[in-house]
């Protein structure tokens, strides 16, 4: 009996290292590398949120036909602020433009448009680095007399509506192309001894650059 117990103890002491080695080998076989952490990608172009300033240039005419006469050079500056609200970019913009004496027709002749101040609301849909937007607001236009036709003194209030597309070039600079329709209702003029009132309008196509803060 004692010999049997002694034999079992010796056998157990010999097989234990083999069992431990088998378990360790199994553990090494099933070992897998821990998952690595990847930082989220950052868009190089930035977002549309924040303030911006810029400049623009284009043409303004009483007709949408680019080959029509009476055109003027639209050149100026703009500044505004954008905010992303639920995937829609909304904001406001102010611009001051020199219109290069573009001509509008009134009874008895023409008047010249000299300067314009625009205060516009904006709303657009961002498509990554591209923003497609619409705009509408108040326009204040300064007119000059032309020939025998006299216009109103000071600035005349009107409205402005338009559409545009803006493309981020990097996180600070964007380029845009915009079309505006501007109307000035009840514009009073004096020609040939008579006073008249007429609604006048013009079309503006311009390109610009914005710097985003």
From TrEMBL:
It comes from Rhizobium helianthi. It comes from the Bacteria. The keyword Signal applies. Residues 1-25 form the signal peptide. Gene3D superfamilies: 2.40.160.20. Keywords: Cell outer membrane, Membrane, Signal. This is Outer membrane protein. Transmembrane segments: none annotated. Residues 25-213 form the Outer membrane protein beta-barrel domain. SUPFAM superfamilies: OMPA-like. Its main location: membrane. It is found in: Cell outer membrane. Belongs to the Omp25/RopB family.
């Amino acid at each position: 009996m004692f010999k049997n117990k002694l034999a079992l103890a010796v056998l157990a002491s010999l097989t234990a290292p083999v069992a431990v080695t088998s378990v360790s080998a199994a553990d090494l076989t099933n070992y897998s590398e821990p998952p690595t952490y990847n930082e989220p990608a950052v868009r190089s172009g930035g977002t549309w949120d924040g303030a911006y300033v810029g400049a623009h240039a284009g043409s303004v005419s009483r007709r949408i036909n680019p080959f029509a006469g009476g055109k003027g050079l639209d050149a100026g500056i703009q500044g505004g602020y954008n905010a992303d609200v639920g995937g829609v970019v909304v904001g406001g913009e102010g611009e001051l433009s020199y219109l290069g004496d573009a001509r509008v027709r009134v009874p008895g002749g023409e008047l010249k448009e000299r300067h314009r101040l625009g205060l516009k609301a904006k709303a657009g849909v961002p498509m990554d680095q591209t923003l497609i937007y619409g705009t509408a607001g108040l326009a204040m236009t300064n007119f000059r007399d032309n020939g025998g036709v006299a216009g109103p003194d000071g600035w005349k209030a009107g409205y402005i509506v338009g559409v545009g597309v803006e493309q981020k070039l990097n996180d600070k600079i964007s380029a845009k192309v915009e079309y505006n329709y501007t109307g000035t209702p009840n514009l009073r003029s004096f020609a040939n001894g008579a006073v008249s009132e007429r609604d006048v309008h013009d079309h503006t196509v311009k390109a610009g650059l914005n710097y985003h803060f």
